[in-house]
Input
Amino acid sequence: MIRYTLSCDNGHDFEGWFSSSDDFDRQVERKLVSCPSCNSTSVAKQLMAPSVATARKKEATRAVIMDQAQKETVAKIRELVKSVRENAEDVGERFPEEARKIHYGEAEERGLIGKATAEEAVALLEEGIAVAPLPILPDEVN
Output
């Protein structure tokens, strides 16, 4: 995945994650990328310094200090993720294949969770198959 710093024609800056530079270009051309502040679809990449991994560089994580409202929101998201996991069949690496079978009526409709590469997820979305990543919550990386 590539993280781009983006800006809209109204001067708002934000981030976007894409499987490749071509994926970004295709999504912008199809007006699928919009500013979260004003919904403008006139979006451009900003100049970014490359992230170079070295043997000495430790894996960095983003840190956040949460107020009570944010803690409550994370708790609700955690409950949602737990419910999704409890009510879905974990098909592991077969996720893209099983999602297509359900979408095209070759298998019974049911909730699925599993693994997919960014490219596989993009391909599923382009086929009209609704997929979304499960969020990784703060306690899961500490």
